[in-house]
Amino acid sequence: MTSQPGDRWDAVVIGAGPAGSIAAAGLARRGVRTLLVDRAVFPRPKLCGGCLAPAGLGAIQRAGFGSIESVRDSLAVSRLDLHSGKYMASVGIPAYRVVDRSSFDSDLADGAVRSGAVFRDGIRAMVHPDCTVSLEYRRGRNPSVERVRPGIVIVADGLKGGSLAEFDLFAWSVRNASLVGIGGVGERYPGELAPDAISMFHSDEGYLGVARLPSGRADLAAAVRPSWIRRQKGSGPLEGFVRSVGLDPASFGELRSVPGVPSLTRKRRTIEASGRVFVIGDAMGYVEPFTGEGMSWAVESGAQVLPFASDSLEGRYQEGAWAGVVRRERARRTLPCRLVTGALRVPGAVRAITIGGACVPLVDRWLSHFARVAFGATSVEPVK
Question: What pTM does this model have?
Fold first, then answer.
């Protein structure tokens, strides 16, 4: 970015994932001078199951992004194939869409630019306790730092983001024994897996989700016990975990890992400060991603924060309002996910459910009903 003396941003949005890009686009459409930045250089790989739940798809459409190429080309899946050992239970779920996060995030950032925001990648941002933001331009041999004082700051830099590291108010609280995230992309989707399903493989050490990408490749995302990773020698953690759940890594062709995510289940001490700094998306906190709603929650938060951000810029924001709304909404929305991930920690529970779903009609009907609730049943218009 070429900075000129006197440049002023009404809003700086840190993180160009779904939450940040949706927020930046919405602010720009309201006439807010908005800078969207991301530490990575786009397009970039991203650890994610790639599954967009009905609620998230609806939010994408309401935000005006329903026609972007990565959504138009997304694949519909309406089944969950749950594998545990040699048993499999197949249950219906609300229609999810599988997107390639690399192209999806790039399309959303481009959409924010078309809406009037300025996007700059390859920039490290740091929020200071006085609500100013340092922007480090790291490209080239002579990186430079600019300090700006926007009217508001929206932080959407995910679980691994460090933009709030100097702000003790936003410290993380991490759940004991939280699983860690690993994943990657296989050059081909295994023929033994159903192409119209999300395939979930469970073991006592964690679980792996596999979905077919629009390109025909395979998206793999796993939540694994840290102790299991520490015991691995030789092959990489992803290849080793694929093998541990009964899959042949060779069936994916070349497996390319993406950077992992530590401590998946966590939350911030607070998600706003001084009526000027607002945290959204995964940067607010996260629950283990078995139900695949993380991306939908991020998209929704990017849209939900807009009236609060506008109130702040116009001087009528009631401090604590954003945190109060999120606390109530997240408690309601994450309850099914918490129940599912809690069950995953009970030895033998998933195997018993899988065997029952495969062999007992009554259990199969109950499992299908619960899956529709846990996987976010919401009616939305289909993608044209």
Answer: 0.86
